[in-house]
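Q: Okay, next protein. This is Secondary thiamine-phosphate synthase enzyme from Alcanivorax nanhaiticus. I've checked the sequence twice, so it should be correct. Can you predict the 3D structure?
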Amino acid sequence: MWKQKTLTLPAKRRGCHLVTREVLEQLPELAGMRVGLLHLFIQHTSASLTINENADPDVRGDLERHLNVMVPENAPYYEHTLEGPDDMPAHIKSVLIGPSLSLPITDGRLALGTWQGIYLCEHRDHGGARRLVATIQGE
């Protein structure tokens, strides 16, 4: 079986956000899958998806602070500046983290590790709602 749908995550402030529950709420069809794969793709160039710590929110804050040190705003060599000082750094962070995830499905659930969750990394100060294309393959 193949299924594809577009999910919407509401606008979030800049930072790394645990969105596992929000994603799963929009994918009730996973419950009927014995084995499969969920592919998530974010349709934006200034936000990204990753898997990381689901228990301690300090990890999300530390990740955001580290990304801001690695990729600062207002770097004198940026040419793409018309959309504000957070835009070019957002594009760079998106390239570093990536736009997609492939997650195994086992017995109707995502086969994430005990401490793993899905992160939406919002790299803009006011990025707006974010669309994810979810593609499910399996039986």
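A: Here is a summary of the prediction. The beta strands are 2-9, 15-18, 35-42, 47-53, 100-106, 109-110, 116-122, 130-138. The longest helix spans residues 57-70.
Q: Noted. On to the next one.
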